[in-house]
């Protein structure tokens, strides 16, 4: 499955967002996802399995718990793919920064503080 197929699902994106804050137990992830999306525990487990099998997350046992964490490699692959498109938003962000700086400069001049 392609990385964007994995990330195209809002439940899987949300799981990755939760795990971006650090390692979490499957039960904790499941609670949040069930509350936000109204899906069953087996459905949450299926999403975790897809993320694990695609390499986006890893799992390690801790007694009876399963702790999940984000794996960086697939995200780096997406970042590499996105690199060719950064020019489209970087130029706009640079222009925005220029306009913000110009506005700050004009406000200082209006207050008499060059």
From TrEMBL:
Give one Pfam family, short name only: HTH_5
For this protein, the record's SUPFAM superfamilies field holds:
Winged helix' DNA-binding domain
Q: Which UniProt keywords apply?
A: DNA-binding, Transcription, Transcription regulation
List the CDD domains: HTH_ARSR
Q: Indicate the segments forming the HTH arsR-type domain, all copies.
A: 1-90
Query: Which PROSITE patterns does the protein's record reference?
Result: HTH_ARSR_2
Check the record and name the InterPro entries matching this protein. ArsR-like_HTH, HTH_ArsR_DNA-bd_dom, HTH_MetalResp_TranReg, WH-like_DNA-bd_sf, WH_DNA-bd_sf
Gene3D superfamilies xref list = Winged helix-like DNA-binding domain superfamily/Winged helix DNA-binding domain (1.10.10.10)
By what name is this protein known?
Winged helix-turn-helix transcriptional regulator
This chain's source organism reads Micromonospora fiedleri
């Amino acid at each position: 499955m392609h990385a964007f197929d994995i990330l195209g699902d809002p439940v899987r994106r949300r799981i990755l967002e939760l795990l971006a804050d650090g390692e979490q137990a499957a039960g904790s992830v499941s609670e949040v996802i069930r509350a936000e999306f109204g899906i069953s525990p087996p459905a949450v487990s299926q999403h975790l399995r897809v993320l694990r099998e695609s390499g986006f997350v890893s799992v390690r046992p801790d007694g009876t718990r399963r702790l999940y964490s984000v794996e960086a490699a697939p995200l780096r692959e997406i970042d590499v793919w996105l690199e060719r498109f950064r020019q489209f938003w970087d130029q706009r962000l640079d222009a925005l920064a220029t306009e913000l700086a110009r506005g700050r400069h004009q406000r200082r001049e209006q207050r008499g503080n060059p």
